[in-house]
Amino acid sequence: MAINHGKLDTLLGKIFDACASGEVSRGSAIGALAHVVVALEQGNRAEAEAWVNDPKTFDHWLALKKTA
């Protein structure tokens, strides 16, 4: 399965918006972006695709970061 650029843009926007609104720290936002990049670099396409293609993955991450 290929990474959908429109969905990737949506994910990046959600991460940036969560940071800008103060829901998550800058460090957490950077960590989420790095997580996706490293997953791709290590050949873990399933992980990267989950972040990009499944909104529940972002929602779960956001819920964890809000409680941290």
Q: What features would you describe in this structure?
A:
The relative contact order is 0.18. Helix 2 crosses helix 3 and helix 3 crosses helix 4. The protein has one domain (5-67). The protein is globular, with a radius of gyration of 11 Å. The longest helix has 16 residues, at 5-20. It has four helices and no strands. It has helices at 5-20, 26-41, 45-53, 55-67. It starts with a helix and ends with a helix. With 68 residues, the chain is mainly alpha-helical. 79% of the residues lie in helices and 0% in strands.
Q: What are the SSEs and their pairings?
A:
Layout: H1 5-20, H2 26-41, H3 45-53, H4 55-67
The description of the largest β-sheet is: none
Question: Judging from the principal axes of the Cα atoms, what is the shape?
Answer: globular
User: What do the pLDDT scores average to?
Assistant: 92
- Contiguous runs where pLDDT drops below 50 for at least 5 residues: none
Helix content: over 70%
Q: How many domains is the backbone divided into?
A: 1
Order of helices and strands: HHHH
Number of helices: 4
Number of strands: 0
Broad structural category: mainly alpha
Strand content: under 5%
Instruction: Give the termini separation.
Output: 33 Å
Oligomer: single chain
CA-atom Rg in angstroms: 11 Å
Protein name: DUF982 domain-containing protein
